[in-house]
Amino acid sequence: MSSSRPALGVGMVGYAFMGRVHSQAWRSVGAFFDLPVTPVMAVLSGRSARTADAAATLGWAAVENDWKELIRREDVHIVDICTPGDSHAEIAVAALEAGKHVLCEKPLANTVAEAEAMVAAAGQAAARGVRSMVAFNYRRVPAVALARQMVADGRLGEIRHVRAQYLQDWITDPEFPLVWRLQKDKAGSGALGDIGSHIVDTAQFVTGQNLTGVSALTETFIRERPLAGDSAGLAAGADGTGRGEVTVDDAALFIGRLSGGGLASFEATRFAAGRKNALRLEINGSLGSLAFDFEAMNELWFHDHTLPAGDAGFRRILVTESDHPYAAAWWPPGHGLGYEHTFTHEVKDFLEALAAGTDPTPSFADGLRVQRVLRAVEESAANDSRWTAITG
Ligand code: SOE
Protein backbone atom coordinates (compact mmCIF):
# COMPACT_ATOMS: atom_id res chain seq x y z
CA MET A 1 0.00 0.00 0.00
CA SER A 2 2.74 2.46 0.98
CA SER A 3 5.73 1.11 -0.99
CA SER A 4 6.36 4.31 -3.02
CA ARG A 5 6.72 6.39 0.16
CA PRO A 6 10.09 7.24 1.75
CA ALA A 7 11.56 4.28 3.63
CA LEU A 8 12.48 4.38 7.33
CA GLY A 9 14.68 1.55 8.59
CA VAL A 10 13.74 0.03 11.94
CA GLY A 11 16.23 -1.62 14.30
CA MET A 12 14.66 -3.59 17.13
CA VAL A 13 16.49 -4.57 20.31
CA GLY A 14 15.12 -7.73 22.01
CA TYR A 15 12.91 -10.45 20.56
CA ALA A 16 10.98 -12.09 23.39
CA PHE A 17 7.27 -11.42 24.01
CA MET A 18 7.37 -7.67 23.29
CA GLY A 19 9.78 -8.13 20.39
CA ARG A 20 7.45 -10.64 18.79
CA VAL A 21 4.39 -8.46 19.10
CA HIS A 22 6.26 -5.35 17.88
CA SER A 23 7.54 -7.38 14.90
CA GLN A 24 3.97 -8.29 14.07
CA ALA A 25 3.08 -4.58 14.16
CA TRP A 26 5.95 -3.51 11.89
CA ARG A 27 5.15 -6.36 9.47
CA SER A 28 1.45 -5.61 9.14
CA VAL A 29 1.08 -1.84 9.56
CA GLY A 30 1.72 -0.94 5.91
CA ALA A 31 -0.73 -3.55 4.69
CA PHE A 32 -3.66 -2.00 6.56
CA PHE A 33 -2.90 1.71 6.92
CA ASP A 34 -2.10 4.14 4.13
CA LEU A 35 1.13 5.46 5.62
CA PRO A 36 3.19 8.49 4.58
CA VAL A 37 6.39 6.41 5.05
CA THR A 38 7.33 2.76 4.62
CA PRO A 39 8.88 1.00 7.62
CA VAL A 40 11.64 -1.42 6.67
CA MET A 41 12.45 -4.16 9.18
CA ALA A 42 16.19 -3.66 8.80
CA VAL A 43 17.90 -5.27 11.78
CA LEU A 44 17.26 -7.20 14.98
CA SER A 45 19.66 -7.15 17.89
CA GLY A 46 19.87 -9.77 20.63
CA ARG A 47 22.63 -11.26 22.73
CA SER A 48 21.97 -14.95 22.32
CA ALA A 49 22.80 -17.40 19.56
CA ARG A 50 19.07 -17.62 18.85
CA THR A 51 18.91 -14.07 17.47
CA ALA A 52 19.46 -15.11 13.85
CA ASP A 53 16.64 -17.66 14.04
CA ALA A 54 14.38 -15.09 15.66
CA ALA A 55 15.19 -12.57 12.92
CA ALA A 56 14.32 -15.09 10.22
CA THR A 57 11.07 -16.09 11.92
CA LEU A 58 9.96 -12.56 12.72
CA GLY A 59 10.95 -10.98 9.41
CA TRP A 60 14.09 -8.94 10.15
CA ALA A 61 16.62 -8.59 7.31
CA ALA A 62 19.82 -8.54 9.36
CA VAL A 63 21.20 -9.28 12.83
CA GLU A 64 23.55 -7.49 15.23
CA ASN A 65 24.64 -9.05 18.49
CA ASP A 66 25.48 -5.70 20.05
CA TRP A 67 22.80 -2.99 20.18
CA LYS A 68 25.55 -0.35 19.89
CA GLU A 69 26.29 -1.65 16.40
CA LEU A 70 22.59 -1.51 15.55
CA ILE A 71 22.48 2.16 16.55
CA ARG A 72 25.54 2.94 14.40
CA ARG A 73 24.00 1.52 11.23
CA GLU A 74 23.00 3.94 8.50
CA ASP A 75 20.03 1.81 7.48
CA VAL A 76 18.49 2.28 10.95
CA HIS A 77 16.39 5.43 11.45
CA ILE A 78 14.15 4.13 14.26
CA VAL A 79 15.31 2.18 17.32
CA ASP A 80 12.57 0.05 18.89
CA ILE A 81 13.51 -0.99 22.46
CA CYS A 82 11.89 -4.25 23.59
CA THR A 83 14.30 -5.21 26.38
CA PRO A 84 13.72 -5.42 30.15
CA GLY A 85 13.65 -2.04 31.90
CA ASP A 86 17.26 -2.14 33.15
CA SER A 87 18.60 -1.29 29.68
CA HIS A 88 15.95 1.18 28.45
CA ALA A 89 17.75 4.34 29.56
CA GLU A 90 21.17 3.43 28.20
CA ILE A 91 19.87 2.31 24.80
CA ALA A 92 17.37 5.16 24.42
CA VAL A 93 19.81 7.93 25.33
CA ALA A 94 22.52 6.51 23.03
CA ALA A 95 20.05 6.13 20.15
CA LEU A 96 18.65 9.66 20.54
CA GLU A 97 22.17 11.10 20.68
CA ALA A 98 22.96 9.22 17.47
CA GLY A 99 19.97 10.91 15.82
CA LYS A 100 17.65 7.87 15.78
CA HIS A 101 13.95 8.12 16.60
CA VAL A 102 13.08 5.89 19.58
CA LEU A 103 10.07 3.78 20.48
CA CYS A 104 10.61 2.36 23.98
CA GLU A 105 8.63 -0.32 25.82
CA LYS A 106 6.96 0.53 29.13
CA PRO A 107 7.51 1.31 31.90
CA LEU A 108 9.85 3.98 30.54
CA ALA A 109 12.66 3.05 32.95
CA ASN A 110 13.35 1.34 36.26
CA THR A 111 13.81 4.57 38.25
CA VAL A 112 12.72 8.20 38.15
CA ALA A 113 16.37 9.28 37.71
CA GLU A 114 16.73 7.14 34.58
CA ALA A 115 13.42 8.42 33.24
CA GLU A 116 14.54 12.01 33.84
CA ALA A 117 17.74 11.39 31.87
CA MET A 118 15.65 9.95 29.05
CA VAL A 119 13.35 12.99 29.03
CA ALA A 120 16.36 15.31 28.92
CA ALA A 121 17.83 13.38 25.97
CA ALA A 122 14.44 13.37 24.26
CA GLY A 123 14.16 17.16 24.66
CA GLN A 124 17.57 17.75 23.09
CA ALA A 125 16.81 15.30 20.30
CA ALA A 126 13.41 16.89 19.57
CA ALA A 127 15.18 20.21 18.93
CA ARG A 128 17.01 18.34 16.12
CA GLY A 129 13.80 16.76 14.78
CA VAL A 130 14.47 13.38 16.44
CA ARG A 131 11.33 11.96 18.12
CA SER A 132 10.56 9.54 20.93
CA MET A 133 7.57 7.68 22.31
CA VAL A 134 6.88 5.24 25.15
CA ALA A 135 4.85 2.15 24.24
CA PHE A 136 1.76 2.27 26.44
CA ASN A 137 -0.14 0.23 23.86
CA TYR A 138 -3.53 0.14 25.60
CA ARG A 139 -4.09 3.77 24.60
CA ARG A 140 -4.56 2.30 21.12
CA VAL A 141 -7.36 -0.11 21.96
CA PRO A 142 -10.22 1.39 19.90
CA ALA A 143 -12.58 1.26 22.90
CA VAL A 144 -10.04 3.07 25.12
CA ALA A 145 -9.46 5.74 22.46
CA LEU A 146 -13.24 6.12 22.15
CA ALA A 147 -13.56 6.45 25.94
CA ARG A 148 -11.06 9.30 25.90
CA GLN A 149 -13.01 11.03 23.09
CA MET A 150 -16.27 10.68 25.01
CA VAL A 151 -14.74 12.16 28.18
CA ALA A 152 -13.16 15.00 26.17
CA ASP A 153 -16.52 15.66 24.45
CA GLY A 154 -18.11 16.14 27.89
CA ARG A 155 -20.35 13.05 27.70
CA LEU A 156 -19.46 12.12 31.28
CA GLY A 157 -19.50 15.62 32.74
CA GLU A 158 -17.27 16.14 35.74
CA ILE A 159 -15.19 13.10 36.64
CA ARG A 160 -15.85 11.93 40.20
CA HIS A 161 -14.43 8.41 40.29
CA VAL A 162 -11.91 6.30 38.40
CA ARG A 163 -11.74 2.61 39.33
CA ALA A 164 -8.81 0.92 37.58
CA GLN A 165 -7.67 -2.68 37.85
CA TYR A 166 -5.13 -4.81 36.03
CA LEU A 167 -5.63 -8.42 37.03
CA GLN A 168 -3.52 -11.38 35.88
CA ASP A 169 -2.85 -14.80 37.45
CA TRP A 170 0.31 -16.14 35.77
CA ILE A 171 2.43 -16.41 38.94
CA THR A 172 -0.24 -17.78 41.28
CA ASP A 173 1.62 -21.12 41.37
CA PRO A 174 4.49 -20.83 43.93
CA GLU A 175 6.56 -23.11 41.66
CA PHE A 176 6.40 -20.66 38.75
CA PRO A 177 10.07 -19.75 38.16
CA LEU A 178 11.94 -16.59 39.00
CA VAL A 179 11.75 -14.94 35.56
CA TRP A 180 13.19 -11.45 34.99
CA ARG A 181 9.86 -9.77 35.67
CA LEU A 182 10.24 -10.93 39.31
CA GLN A 183 13.71 -9.40 39.77
CA LYS A 184 14.02 -5.77 40.85
CA ASP A 185 17.41 -5.17 39.22
CA LYS A 186 15.95 -6.12 35.83
CA ALA A 187 12.30 -5.03 36.06
CA GLY A 188 12.42 -2.12 38.53
CA SER A 189 9.28 -3.33 40.32
CA GLY A 190 6.75 -6.13 40.02
CA ALA A 191 3.04 -5.96 39.25
CA LEU A 192 3.32 -2.25 40.02
CA GLY A 193 5.63 -1.33 37.13
CA ASP A 194 4.65 -4.07 34.71
CA ILE A 195 0.87 -3.69 34.78
CA GLY A 196 0.18 -0.94 37.35
CA SER A 197 2.01 1.44 34.99
CA HIS A 198 -0.54 0.61 32.28
CA ILE A 199 -3.58 1.45 34.40
CA VAL A 200 -2.02 4.67 35.65
CA ASP A 201 -1.29 5.72 32.06
CA THR A 202 -4.69 4.57 30.78
CA ALA A 203 -6.57 6.36 33.57
CA GLN A 204 -4.63 9.59 33.02
CA PHE A 205 -5.04 9.29 29.23
CA VAL A 206 -8.79 8.69 29.29
CA THR A 207 -9.60 11.38 31.86
CA GLY A 208 -7.01 13.89 30.64
CA GLN A 209 -6.07 14.37 34.30
CA ASN A 210 -3.01 13.52 36.36
CA LEU A 211 -2.68 11.87 39.74
CA THR A 212 -1.56 14.38 42.37
CA GLY A 213 -0.96 12.00 45.30
CA VAL A 214 -1.39 8.41 46.46
CA SER A 215 -1.69 6.14 49.46
CA ALA A 216 -0.57 2.56 48.79
CA LEU A 217 -0.15 -1.04 49.88
CA THR A 218 2.15 -3.53 48.19
CA GLU A 219 2.72 -7.21 48.97
CA THR A 220 4.98 -10.07 47.92
CA PHE A 221 3.05 -13.28 48.61
CA ILE A 222 5.67 -15.76 47.39
CA ARG A 223 9.14 -14.69 48.48
CA GLU A 224 11.21 -17.49 46.93
CA ARG A 225 10.82 -19.31 43.62
CA PRO A 226 12.69 -21.88 41.55
CA LEU A 227 15.47 -20.30 39.51
CA ALA A 228 14.52 -19.89 35.87
CA GLY A 229 16.58 -21.79 33.34
CA ASP A 230 16.00 -19.18 30.69
CA SER A 231 14.26 -16.08 31.94
CA ALA A 232 12.90 -15.27 28.53
CA GLY A 233 9.32 -14.52 29.39
CA LEU A 234 6.06 -15.45 31.02
CA ALA A 235 6.26 -19.16 30.20
CA ALA A 236 9.92 -19.88 31.06
CA GLY A 237 10.56 -23.29 32.60
CA ALA A 238 12.50 -23.83 35.82
CA ASP A 239 15.90 -25.42 35.39
CA GLY A 240 15.89 -27.18 38.77
CA THR A 241 19.12 -25.61 40.06
CA GLY A 242 17.76 -24.13 43.28
CA ARG A 243 15.66 -21.24 44.46
CA GLY A 244 16.05 -17.49 44.45
CA GLU A 245 14.49 -14.48 46.13
CA VAL A 246 11.58 -12.58 44.58
CA THR A 247 12.68 -8.95 44.91
CA VAL A 248 9.55 -7.21 43.61
CA ASP A 249 5.93 -6.76 44.64
CA ASP A 250 3.37 -9.37 43.62
CA ALA A 251 0.50 -6.94 44.01
CA ALA A 252 -0.03 -3.20 44.50
CA LEU A 253 -3.16 -1.41 45.65
CA PHE A 254 -3.45 2.34 45.86
CA ILE A 255 -5.86 5.21 46.01
CA GLY A 256 -5.21 8.65 44.63
CA ARG A 257 -6.55 12.09 43.84
CA LEU A 258 -6.92 13.40 40.30
CA SER A 259 -5.97 16.91 39.27
CA GLY A 260 -9.62 17.64 38.40
CA GLY A 261 -10.79 16.80 41.94
CA GLY A 262 -11.93 13.21 41.39
CA LEU A 263 -10.95 10.15 43.42
CA ALA A 264 -9.22 7.12 41.92
CA SER A 265 -8.43 3.57 43.00
CA PHE A 266 -5.95 1.16 41.42
CA GLU A 267 -5.27 -2.55 41.83
CA ALA A 268 -2.45 -4.39 40.03
CA THR A 269 -1.93 -8.07 40.74
CA ARG A 270 -0.67 -11.27 39.16
CA PHE A 271 -2.53 -13.36 41.75
CA ALA A 272 -6.13 -12.86 40.61
CA ALA A 273 -6.76 -16.55 39.84
CA GLY A 274 -8.85 -16.85 36.70
CA ARG A 275 -8.19 -13.32 35.46
CA LYS A 276 -5.78 -13.42 32.53
CA ASN A 277 -5.39 -9.90 31.21
CA ALA A 278 -8.22 -7.99 32.84
CA LEU A 279 -7.28 -4.35 32.40
CA ARG A 280 -10.47 -2.74 33.66
CA LEU A 281 -11.52 0.83 33.91
CA GLU A 282 -14.73 2.31 35.25
CA ILE A 283 -15.27 6.04 35.25
CA ASN A 284 -18.18 7.78 36.92
CA GLY A 285 -18.95 11.36 35.98
CA SER A 286 -21.74 13.81 36.79
CA LEU A 287 -23.50 12.97 33.48
CA GLY A 288 -22.70 9.30 33.02
CA SER A 289 -20.32 6.38 33.37
CA LEU A 290 -18.02 4.27 31.19
CA ALA A 291 -16.76 0.75 31.80
CA PHE A 292 -14.11 -1.25 29.92
CA ASP A 293 -12.49 -4.67 30.40
CA PHE A 294 -9.66 -5.74 28.09
CA GLU A 295 -10.88 -9.34 28.26
CA ALA A 296 -13.78 -8.07 26.13
CA MET A 297 -11.69 -5.45 24.38
CA ASN A 298 -14.08 -4.64 21.54
CA GLU A 299 -16.77 -3.45 23.96
CA LEU A 300 -17.25 -0.19 25.80
CA TRP A 301 -20.15 0.18 28.24
CA PHE A 302 -21.82 3.57 28.58
CA HIS A 303 -24.45 4.76 31.01
CA ASP A 304 -26.04 8.07 30.01
CA HIS A 305 -27.29 9.57 33.25
CA THR A 306 -29.17 12.34 31.41
CA LEU A 307 -31.74 9.83 30.14
CA PRO A 308 -34.87 9.01 32.16
CA ALA A 309 -33.81 6.48 34.84
CA GLY A 310 -36.14 3.85 33.41
CA ASP A 311 -34.40 3.95 30.03
CA ALA A 312 -30.80 4.62 31.01
CA GLY A 313 -29.05 1.41 32.12
CA PHE A 314 -25.60 0.57 30.78
CA ARG A 315 -25.51 0.04 27.04
CA ARG A 316 -22.83 -1.90 25.19
CA ILE A 317 -21.09 -0.09 22.35
CA LEU A 318 -19.44 -2.60 20.05
CA VAL A 319 -16.39 -0.57 19.05
CA THR A 320 -16.03 -1.98 15.55
CA GLU A 321 -17.86 0.59 13.43
CA SER A 322 -15.93 2.40 10.72
CA ASP A 323 -16.26 5.72 12.54
CA HIS A 324 -14.63 4.29 15.68
CA PRO A 325 -10.91 4.93 16.26
CA TYR A 326 -8.67 2.75 14.02
CA ALA A 327 -11.53 0.39 13.11
CA ALA A 328 -12.05 1.39 9.46
CA ALA A 329 -8.63 0.03 8.47
CA TRP A 330 -9.56 -3.52 9.48
CA TRP A 331 -12.62 -5.71 9.12
CA PRO A 332 -16.34 -5.15 8.51
CA PRO A 333 -18.34 -4.04 11.59
CA GLY A 334 -18.56 -6.61 14.38
CA HIS A 335 -15.53 -8.68 13.38
CA GLY A 336 -13.36 -7.28 16.13
CA LEU A 337 -9.68 -6.81 16.93
CA GLY A 338 -7.14 -8.39 19.32
CA TYR A 339 -4.12 -7.58 21.52
CA GLU A 340 -1.69 -7.35 18.59
CA HIS A 341 -3.69 -4.65 16.82
CA THR A 342 -2.95 -2.18 19.66
CA PHE A 343 0.74 -2.38 18.70
CA THR A 344 -0.03 -1.95 15.01
CA HIS A 345 -1.96 1.22 15.89
CA GLU A 346 0.96 2.34 18.04
CA VAL A 347 3.52 2.11 15.23
CA LYS A 348 1.04 3.64 12.77
CA ASP A 349 0.62 6.72 14.99
CA PHE A 350 4.36 6.83 15.61
CA LEU A 351 5.21 6.74 11.88
CA GLU A 352 2.59 9.38 11.06
CA ALA A 353 4.05 11.71 13.70
CA LEU A 354 7.57 11.17 12.32
CA ALA A 355 6.38 11.97 8.81
CA ALA A 356 4.51 15.07 10.01
CA GLY A 357 7.45 16.25 12.14
CA THR A 358 5.33 16.31 15.29
CA ASP A 359 5.94 14.77 18.72
CA PRO A 360 4.24 11.38 19.07
CA THR A 361 2.39 10.50 22.27
CA PRO A 362 2.74 9.14 24.87
CA SER A 363 5.98 11.08 25.12
CA PHE A 364 8.92 10.25 27.36
CA ALA A 365 7.59 13.06 29.60
CA ASP A 366 4.31 11.12 29.90
CA GLY A 367 6.37 8.03 30.77
CA LEU A 368 8.23 10.01 33.45
CA ARG A 369 4.89 11.16 34.91
CA VAL A 370 3.87 7.51 35.32
CA GLN A 371 7.30 6.70 36.78
CA ARG A 372 6.76 9.36 39.44
CA VAL A 373 3.46 7.75 40.39
CA LEU A 374 5.21 4.36 40.70
CA ARG A 375 7.85 5.89 42.95
CA ALA A 376 5.21 7.56 45.13
CA VAL A 377 3.36 4.23 45.45
CA GLU A 378 6.54 2.48 46.60
CA GLU A 379 7.36 5.28 49.04
CA SER A 380 3.86 5.28 50.48
CA ALA A 381 3.77 1.49 50.84
CA ALA A 382 7.14 1.55 52.62
CA ASN A 383 5.76 4.14 55.07
CA ASP A 384 2.53 2.53 56.31
CA SER A 385 0.53 3.85 53.36
CA ARG A 386 1.34 7.47 54.19
CA TRP A 387 -0.16 10.00 51.78
CA THR A 388 2.55 10.78 49.22
CA ALA A 389 2.33 13.70 46.81
CA ILE A 390 3.37 13.22 43.19
CA THR A 391 5.97 15.88 42.63
CA GLY A 392 7.87 17.16 39.62
C1 SOE B 1 3.10 -9.28 31.58
O1 SOE B 1 2.51 -8.99 32.79
C2 SOE B 1 2.57 -8.44 30.43
O2 SOE B 1 3.06 -8.99 29.25
C3 SOE B 1 3.03 -7.00 30.47
O3 SOE B 1 4.43 -6.90 30.51
C4 SOE B 1 2.47 -6.27 29.28
O4 SOE B 1 2.83 -4.93 29.32
C5 SOE B 1 0.95 -6.44 29.24
O5 SOE B 1 0.46 -5.92 28.04
C6 SOE B 1 0.54 -7.86 29.31
O6 SOE B 1 1.15 -8.48 30.40
Features:
392 residues; alpha/beta; Rossmann fold; Dihydrodipicolinate Reductase, domain 2; 9-stranded mixed sheet; 6-stranded parallel sheet; binds alpha-L-sorbopyranose
CATH topology grouping of the largest domain: Dihydrodipicolinate Reductase, domain 2
Total strand segments? 17
Class based on secondary structure composition and strand pairing: alpha/beta
Q: Superfamily at the CATH H level of the largest domain?
A: Dihydrodipicolinate Reductase, domain 2
Radius of gyration: 21 Å
CATH architecture of the largest domain: 2-Layer Sandwich
List the domain count as a whole number. 2
Oligomer: single chain
Quote the beta fraction: 25-35%
Following the backbone from N to C, one meets helices and strands in this order, namely: EHEHEHEHEHEHEHHEEEEEEEEHEHHE
**Percent helix range:** 25-40%
Biggest sheet statistics: 9 strands, mixed
Note the gap between the termini.
Answer: 44 Å
Q: How confident overall, as mean pLDDT?
A: 96
Number of alpha- plus pi-helical segments: 11
What is the top-level CATH class of the largest domain? Alpha Beta
> Which stretches are low in confidence, meaning pLDDT under 50 for 5 or more residues running?
none
Protein name: Oxidoreductase
Organism: Sphaerisporangium rufum
Domain Gfo/Idh/MocA-like oxidoreductase N-terminal: 9-125
GO molecular function: nucleotide binding; oxidoreductase activity
